[in-house]
């Protein structure tokens, strides 16, 4: 089989297409024939500088394809079933950037019949992260479903990003009023296509005033990508006992909190990292995500605010570079 590997960290040029034996699943494992793989910022960040835990690594946390073989003891998955992957390369040497990947059954999720492989490969990191950000609030729902966020206002920072887009779509499906900050008219168009009710251009307007015009008592949940830059705004627009859910460190590695202004509002800062989420929360997210997909509420494509950028497996280095340099939308790799 064809696979992409790297044996040392560094720029995308360390990625190499190789031929490897098709792996066999062990007990509790599933072999998936990969049709499409997703590329996320975490992929290039690990490749560029994280310590090598294995002699050879195949990158890729997300993907979609067809079950090709099942190991002993696997239930609920069968050969020929369409599936999507989550955490495919977490604590494993080989992820989704290969024609076949062997995964623990818990990381292989049935793909609803109406969903494309493009959508399946776009779900893992973005949608599970967004789900956790939306379900970690004080007094909020622990699961998402239609009506779960009725009466709530959600502020999504950077609504044109992959996680931001998934958060917009999931929050709207669950009944929330969705406000998102954007930096251009093009990104506003994409956020509206995803379902945002209100967009706020933070470069050209008084973002605080515009957000509070929608939510005079403050927003209930902030889905935050750049806390170092945005904490002052978040503090100004989040309601008492609101939640600021932080899933990335865009724009700076440190954030300073004004203590009295923060604790006087009984705010909750919820940090979100997929790798330490725990299987119970990943399972809950996958179930709710599939419900949203089946309902047609979670989508990809230009018309849904998620332009798709396809690369062949042999061009995985270019796909990594596209994500690293800020491609808007979802970068996918055509494998099978």
From TrEMBL:
Residues covered by the Enoyl reductase (ER) domain: 10-333
Designated name of the protein: NADPH:quinone reductase
Residue ranges of the TM segments: none
Keywords in alphabetical order: NADP
InterPro entries: ADH-like_C, ADH-like_N, ER, GroES-like_sf, NAD(P)-bd_dom_sf, Zinc-ADH_QOR/CCCR
Tagged with keyword tRNA processing: no
Origin: domain of life: Bacteria
Signal peptide range in chain numbering: none
Species assigned in the record: Nocardioides koreensis
């Amino acid at each position: 089989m064809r696979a992409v590997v790297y044996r040392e960290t560094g720029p995308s040029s360390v990625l190499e297409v190789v031929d490897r034996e098709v792996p066999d699943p062990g007990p509790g494992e599933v072999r998936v024939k990969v049709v499409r793989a997703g590329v996320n910022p975490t992929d290039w960040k690990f490749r560029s500088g994280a310590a090598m835990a294995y002699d050879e690594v195949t990158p890729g946390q997300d993907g979609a394809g067809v079950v090709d073989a099942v190991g002993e003891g696997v239930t609920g998955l069968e050969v020929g079933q369409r599936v999507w992957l989550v955490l495919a390369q977490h604590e494993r040497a080989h992820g989704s950037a290969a024609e076949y990947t062997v995964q623990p059954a818990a990381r292989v999720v049935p793909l609803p019949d109406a969903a494309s492989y493009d959508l399946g490969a776009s779900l893992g990191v973005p949608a599970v992260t967004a789900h956790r950000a939306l379900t970690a609030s004080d007094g909020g729902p622990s699961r998402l479903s239609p009506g779960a966020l009725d009466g709530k206002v959600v502020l999504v920072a950077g609504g044109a990003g992959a996680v931001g887009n998934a958060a917009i779509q999931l929050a709207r499906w669950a009944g929330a009023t969705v406000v998102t900050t954007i930096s251009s008219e093009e990104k506003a168009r994409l956020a509206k296509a995803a379902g945002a009710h209100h967009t706020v251009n933070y470069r050209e307007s008084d973002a605080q005033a515009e957000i509070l015009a929608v939510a005079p008592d403050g927003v209930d949940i902030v889905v935050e990508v750049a806390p170092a830059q945005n904490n002052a705004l978040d503090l100004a627009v989040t309601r008492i006992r609101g939640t600021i859910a932080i899933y990335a460190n865009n724009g700076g590695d440190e954030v300073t909190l004004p203590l009295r202004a923060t604790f006087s509002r009984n705010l909750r800062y919820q940090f979100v990292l997929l790798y330490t989420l725990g299987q119970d929360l990943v399972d809950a997210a996958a179930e709710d995500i599939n419900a949203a997909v089946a309902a047609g509420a979670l989508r990809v494509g230009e018309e849904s605010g998620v332009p798709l950028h396809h690369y062949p497996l042999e061009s995985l280095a270019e796909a990594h570079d596209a994500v690293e340099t800020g491609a808007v939308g979802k970068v996918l790799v055509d494998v099978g």
